[in-house]
Amino acid sequence: MKTPQPRDASPQRIRMSEIRDIALAQLFLRNPLFSKARYETELETLAKEQNMLLSPDYLEAFILLVIGGGKRPRRAQKSLYRLYKARVAAHEDEAFEQFSALLIELGKKGHSLEGLYFPQTFRTQDHDSIWSDVGAMLGRVKDVVGPVFLNSGTLLGVVRDKSLIAHDDDVDLAVLLDAMDQESAARAWQATYAKLKAAGLLSKKQGPNPGVFKLQSGGVYNIDLFPAWIAQGKLHVYPHTCGDLPAEALLPLADCAVTGLPIPAKSRDVLAVNYGAGWDKPDPGFSFPWNRANRRFKTFMDALGGGAASKPTDHAQD
Hints:
Layout: H1 11-29, H2 36-49, H3 56-68, H4 77-89, H5 93-108, H6 127-145, E1 148-150, H7 152-161, E2 170-176, H8 182-198, E3 213-215, E4 222-231, E5 234-237, E6 241-246, E7 254-255, E8 262-263, H9 267-275, H10 290-296, H11 298-304
Parallel strand pairs: 2-4
Antiparallel strand pairs: 1-2, 3-4, 4-5, 5-6, 7-8
């Protein structure tokens, strides 16, 4: 599977593709004199020169070098996920699926893939089983910590597309905390973590952002839980809504026409704050304004000890 090149490809990009093909050949031919370290160093230097450390060209080559060099495959896990997100953002899902199929074929030929997790978009998954799993988890979280509702990309999908967004890969929920300001919300959020952990509802792997918790999932997708609270009659949902809407935009919670699960009373207003006035039209170039969110929720994040928030990957439109 030789890498095709655009006509205007730079010499550095062409060389990165050559290294990818050399690594792929090694996986099939297994040359005992193959120098993984040499090619890995050259590849990283080329990628840094071209600011391409997050490009599919670099990531595919790096992953193949890790596997072909006989190192622990889990070293390539972060790169595999970055490759997945890059392909999804570019609407190149099939290219990622082809590369995943290649790696799986290599595993059948005796190469270890231990520790590698292959993410999948909702396009290839059974939505009924996902909603069943999410509904069960939502009920358990509600029993432990309070009202829960569909949020962010998941809310966007059910309102705009009447479905999960095809290129998404995680489910977004939010829980309503009992708080009166950002500092008390942070304390309530920390208490929520303790309750969820005691109930066995948290995933073993948590992300770097303390403002988001990952719940257990029954499939190959994440379920992210975000905090919400009402202060002085205004709705706050980290990280997109900071007093922009009245409490009535959320309460009383409504039933989703697609799933039957709870959604904000005025979901369209919440989506307009989250994604902008054009939320009801797909926008491949949408980028969530994290700098603004970090400023607005600074007190909340500082109280959690998180400072400026790390950026989850669940706030992209399509």
